[in-house]
Amino acid sequence: MQGEKKILYSAVQPTNNLTIGNYIGAVSNWVNLQNSYDCVFAIANMHAITVRQNPAELRKNTLSLLALYIACGIDPQKCVLYLQSHVHEHAELAWVLNTFTYVGEMERMTQFKDKSARHADNINMGLMDYPVLMAADILLYLADVVPVGVDQRQHLEITRDIAVRFNNIYSPTFVVPEGLYMKVGAKIGDLLDPSKKMSKSAENANGSVFMSDDRDTIIRKFKRAVTDSGSEIKYDPENKPGVSNLLSIYSVFTGKGMEECEREFSGCGYGDFKLAVGEAVADKLTPIQAEQARLLSDKAYLDGILREGAEKASARARRTLAKVYKKIGFYQV
Ligand code: ATP
Ligand code: LTN
Q: Which pLDDT tens digit goes with each residue over 189-247?
C-alpha cells in the first residue's frame, strides 16, 4: 500500500497491434481503476522479445502503445507509465526469482505450451521464463492487485506461489498480489470462432478487431461474425457463445449494463444486432485513433513521459531489489 491507496500493476506487450480484446480485458479497465488505486502501467518490451521481433517494428510499436494508453484515457499525471527495459531491476529480480522457481512449473504453463507449438523453431529460455519475469514485474512494485484477462490467471498464480515461497524462506518481503478479472470481457472470443480468444497474432485477421482498424473494416468484420442457432439475443456464454461475445463487446464499448443491452436488442435480428455492435465499436475507436495519431506526432512529449516514468518506477523498484539482495546475502558495500 502506497499512502492511502492500494497499488495496482499491469502491462501489455508492444507486439503487433492491440485488439479490442486487449482493450476490453486490460486497458479499458485500467482507465476506470486509475482514480481508486496507485497505478503503475508498463509496456512489456522484455516479454515481447520472447518471440522474435523486428527491431524497427518493436521500436515503433512501443511508442504507439504508449500513445494508445494515453489516448484511451490513462492519465500520465496520475499513473506511472514506463517502459520495462528502462528499469534494469526487472531483469535482476527475475534472475533471483529464477532460483525460487522449478523447471517443472514452467513447463506446465499453458501459454508456454501454446507458444512453443506456434514457434517451434524458437523455443528459447526466455519463452519458458516469461512467467518469472512477469512475477518480477509485479513483485518489484509490491502490487496489491493486477488487472488482466483470464488468460493470465496461471501466471498470476505462479507469481503468488513465488512470493509466498520467498516470504516463507526469509521473512515477509513481497506483497502477495490478487488478480483482478472483470465479470464481462475477461476473455473476448475470436469473431469467427468465439471458443478461441481474440488474439493479436491470430492467423485469420478477420476474427480480430484491431484498435487501428478503420470504420469500414470494423463493420465488415462484425457483419461476418459468427452467431449461434436460434434467434434470441441474450447473454448465455454456455449455449450462445457467439451472441454473448458480441454482447460483451457492446456492453463494454457503450458502458451499458448487460440487462440493458439485452433489452435493447430484444426482437432484433442478428444482422441489425451485428451492425449495431460494429457501429458502437467504430464510434468509440474513431476519436481514440485520432488522439493517438496526434500524440504520435509529438515524440518529445512521449519521450518525456517515458523518462519521467522510468525515474518514478526505478525509485520504487530499487527499494524492493535492495531488500531482496540483503535478505539473500548479497554483500553490500
Ligand atoms: P498475443 O496474442 O500476441 O500472445 P495478447 O493478445 O495475449 O498477445 P498481451 O500483451 O499478451 O496480448 O496481453 C495484454 C492484456 O490483454 C492481458 O491482460 C491479457 O490478459 C489481455 N487479453 C489478451 N487477449 C484478450 C482477450 N481476448 N480478451 C480479454 N483480454 C485479453
Ligand atoms: N504477460 C502479460 C503482460 C505482462 C503483465 C506483466 C501483466 C507482463 N508483465 C505484469 C500484468 C502484470 C500479458 O498480458 N501477456
A: 999 999 999 998 888 899 999 999 999 999 999 999 999 988 999 999 999 999 999 99
d(CA 252, CA 27): 12
- Nearest ligand 2 atom to the CA of 47 is 8
Identify which of 151, 181, 201 to mutate to test ligand 1's pocket (most ligand atoms within 8 A of the CB): 151
Residue 108 sits in the same domain as residue 251: no
Phi, psi at 215, each rounded to 5°: -50, -50
Mean pLDDT, the chain, whole residue set: 95
Which of these, 133, 55, 52, lies nearest to 91 by C-alpha position? 133
Residues 211 and 256 in one domain: yes
Q: Is 48 in the pocket of ligand 2 (CB under 6 A)?
A: no
Look up the CATH number of the domain holding residue 304: 3.40.50.620
163 and 255 both lie in a single domain: no
10 lines ligand 2 (CB under 6 A): yes
> What ligand is nearest to the CA atom of residue 46?
2
Q: CA–CA distance from 294 to each of 39, 273, 297, 305, 306 (Å)?
A: 24, 33, 5, 15, 17
- Distance in angstroms (rounded) separating the CA atoms of residues 289 and 72: 9
Is residue 115 part of the annotated active site? The answer reads: yes
Could you tell me the residue range of the domain that residue 174 belongs to? 7-181+299-328
One domain, residues 220 and 267: yes
Separation of CA 5 and ligand 2 centre (Å): 22
Q: Which of 105, 169, 94, 100 is nearest to 132 (CA)?
A: 94
Same domain, 75 and 108: yes
- Say which residues have a Cβ less than 8 Å from residue 66's Cβ, sequence separation at least 6: 43, 81, 83, 302, 305, 306
Does any ligand 2 atom lie closer than 6 A to the CB of residue 65? Answer: no
5: annotated active-site residue: no
